[in-house]
Structure formats: C-alpha cells, structure tokens
Amino acid sequence: MLRLFLTRIAAAIPTLFAVVTLAFFVMRLAPGGPFDSERGLDPEILKNVQHAYGLDLPLYKQYGLYLWSLLHGDLGPSLHWRDFSVNDIFSVALPISMQIGAEALVFALLCGVPLGMAAAIRPYSWTLWLARIVTLCGIAVPAFVVAPLLQVAFGLDLHWLPVAGWEDGDWRHQILPVFTLALPQIAVILRLTQAAMRDVLSAPFIRTLRAFGLPASHIYVHAFRAACLPVLSYLGPAAAGLLTGTVVVETIFAIPSLGRYFVDGALGRDYTIVMGTVVVVALFIIVFNLFVDLAYGLVDPRVRHD
C-alpha cells in the first residue's frame, strides 16, 4: 500500500506539471488579453499596467515566474478583480463549492447505491421502475431545466425554500442546488451499481454461497463488495467535478463559488484565475484517484497492492 502511494505521488508531479504547462501556453496564445475590454485607456497607461503584471515579459519568463510563484503556493494576482489575489478569491469561493459538492456527492451515494442494489436484487418489482424513472430524469433532463423547475415549484408556488442566494451557508439555501447537482450523479451511480450488482449475483461464487445456505443478507454484502468497484472508479472524477463547482447551477442559484469566478475569468482573459482553477481541479482529480486506488484493496479482497 505504501509503495502504491509513493508511486502515485511520483507520477502525479509530472502529470501536474504537464497540465499546468499546457494550460499556461494555451491561455496565453488565445486571441485577446486581460485589458482589451478597457475603453479609452491611454497606451502609456496600458503599457504601465502590463509591466506591473509582468505581461510585457517574454512568454518563457512569464512561465518561469508563474512556476516559481506556484511552488510557493502563490497563484498570483487577479487581473479582473484588481483588489484581490487568486488566493483571496479561492479562500472564499472554494470552500463553498466544496461544501455543496460534498453534500451532493453524499446524497447521490445514499440514494443511488441502495436503489441500484434494490433494482438488481428484485428486477421485477416497483424498484426497477423507480430506478428507470430516476435514471431517465437524471440523465435526460439537464441542470438548466431542473433548477428553474425546482425554483418555481418550491420557491415561487409553495414558498418552502428560497430560490437563490447563499446567506452564509444557511441550510435552506443549500437544498435546491444540492439536489440539482446530485440528480445526474444519482442516475449514473444507480446504473453502475445496478449493472455491476446484476453481474456479480450471477457469478459462480455467489451460487456457491447460496449452495452452502448462507443468509441472503450475507450474500448481498459479499456481492456488493465485488460490485462497488465501478462506483469507486467513477467517484474520482465525479468528486473532483462536484467539489470544484458547477457553473450552471451556481449561476442559476446565485452562489458565489468557484465556477462563476472561472467563467468570468475566462471571458475576461483573467489568466491567473483560469490557471488557478486548472491547478485546483487537477489536484483534486489526482488526490481522489489516489484515494480510489487505495480503497480498491480495502473493499475487494481480490485486489492487492504490494
């Protein structure tokens, strides 16, 4: 297990370096610049502003300075929000995205895994039809349709929940965005669990357990341990995507989290905001995939890491 951990960490360093390098040069080579939208800006002032941010340096020097700052944990100043650094913005926005994403992921697991298991264990019961309805709604109906429908139903008609805002993380403001984020994840986790559980229940070792007369509850526990590997594999990128925010949901519900800053930064050519988001997402993906690899050996006894 320790060897696997060290190997993954060693492989993560060049991977992160490649992602940062590619994102840096692609962003810089895109047409336009962070100050192109400034109207009536004197050329001399524009030159001074670019010098203040180091944008007048050769590209390789900008790249070297950015890597040096990144090694010291400094994501640089924001070019769009001039009074804030990227670290300042992320210190406020990232915890909000992580909170909403974590709640959505936990809710998706609590709903998707049991329903998928039930649909696989009782394929001719009402649970199968419920699983099909949830899967259809979660996959076929996009978030920009689900979110307004929830706002109209529970906010404007029933007056049960607020339609937008954050209010310092008040629980009533979290319900609708969390459910909107969780719905497609519930559908995917449900399908993965159902398909894997159905395959495992027809495996020879399950027939052997039944032949020995083990209780059904024990058989289903063993079957689930073998069937949860596809769900674990999916959780890595899903968790990274959810914990770093979803732009559509955050915009509709007016949540000041990471996704909105990323879109505004991309439209305004705020290089440091975009690069900071890329670095954070890449780190999340690497970390969660590492956790998934380590969890394989704990969940399934057939998987061993030397």
Write the layout of secondary structure elements.
Layout: H1 2-29, H2 43-52, H3 59-71, H4 86-121, H5 126-140, H6 143-157, H7 171-201, H8 204-211, H9 216-227, H10 229-243, H11 247-252, H12 258-267, H13 271-299
Helix pairs in contact: 1-13, 4-5, 4-7, 4-10, 5-7, 6-7, 7-9, 7-10, 10-13, 12-13
Descriptive terms for the model:
MetI-like fold; single chain; 306 residues; mainly alpha
Gap between N and C termini: 6 Å
- Portion of residues in beta strands equals under 5%
Main β-sheet description: none
> What's the shape?
flat
Low-pLDDT runs of 5+ residues are none
Order of helices and strands: HHHHHHHHHHHHH
- Overall helicity: over 70%
**Class inferred from helices and paired strands:** mainly alpha
Q: Supply Rg.
A: 24 Å
Mean pLDDT: 82
Q: Which topology of the largest domain does CATH recognise?
A: MetI-like fold
The total beta strand count reads 0
Name the CATH architecture of the largest domain.
Orthogonal Bundle
